[in-house]
Amino acid sequence: MVTLNVSAAGRVSLARGLPITVTFADKKPEEVTVAEVKAAVAAKFPRLYPARQKLTVKGEKKALDDDVTLEDAGITDGAEVTVKDLGPQVGWRTVFLVEYAGPLIIHPLFYYNPGFWYGALVPHSLLQKTVYTLVLLHFIKRELETLFVHRFSHGTMPFFNIFKNSGHYWALSGVALAAAIYSPTYDEYSRYMRGSIRSDPRFIGACVTLWLFAEVSNLHTHLTLRSLRPAGTRQRAIPTGYGFDLVSFPNYFFEILSWVAIAAMTGSYAAWVFVGVSSYTMSIWALKKHKAYRRDFGNEYPKNRKAIIPFVI
User: What tens digit of pLDDT does each residue of 21-32 get?
Assistant: First the structure.
């Protein structure tokens, strides 16, 4: 039998009955996981469901992973753990679906209603038609990957973060990009477009080729990452193969490359701002995860592999 004392870390309004004692009959510390402890707490305080809980060893700050056993966490029979309320949670899959839905809604609104936004008809140029198609295909791909390819190591995130995360896509690659690209500046008869390289089908075709290469490569790396994590687990392994021989996160690199293709095609300040912001954000993610790879795998991890930009970062 294993008995644990569970106390509150700070104010936990959904569990005013804390501290409590939870007991696991006929089990040893090596047989009880943190997830089971969370379930026991939730059984007494249903509104404090497991995803809202952060469990830590008494006196420590590091959260305990759900799949870790009490023995592996150094928790013995009769020990005390603390629980913190992380607030309302939302699934990562839901967050991604909402993020990518923004541009899929916003771009058609601007593309098909120029009179409302610009007060004039906009005879769409080849450039505008191409960008519209590429943007929709990109985010449709992201939605399908979210549904059928990605496997998430963390099930949820704080609910209110969905607004912060979605703002990046809805505002920058949604409103800002659509408002700039589908404006009269880029239409069929614009002085800015007439006789410029941006009206040359060969230049547009070259940019589309780069975009297609980046998108297919990005999908390939996502499929590689999926193959490393069996369904329902948080198992990690060293990724290898196409792209991974140069950087830890080629999926981020190819994502940046696809947006560089669109920015180069249009020359739009809005497109380049989105490239800059997204590149910075993904670089921060990549460097943090790259460091975690090196820490977790030690000497097994390739020493010459960069984080996101081959031979650079």
Answer: 999 988 888 889
Mean pLDDT, to the nearest integer, of 239-245?
A: 94
Task: Using CB atoms within 10 Å of the CB of residue 268, give its burial: 0 to 12 exposed, 13 to 18 middle, 19+ buried.
Answer: buried
Question: Which tokens is 12 given?
Answer: 């936990």
Q: By the 8 A CB rule, do 278 and 308 touch?
A: no
Q: How many CA atoms lie within 13 A of 162 on its CB side?
A: 20
For the stretch 50-82, pLDDT in tens is: 999 999 998 888 899 888 999 999 898 899 999
Determine how many CB atoms are found less than 10 A away from the CB of residue 30: 11
Asked whether the beta carbons of 48 and 86 are under 8 A apart, the reply is no
What distance in Å separates the CA atoms of residue 263 and residue 255, rounded to the nearest whole number? 13
- Domains identified in the chain and CATH numbers: 2-87 (3.10.20.90), 90-300 (no CATH)
Q: Distance of CA 169 to CAs 101, 105, 164, 278, Å? A: 9, 11, 10, 9
Query: Does pLDDT of 18 surpass 70?
Result: yes
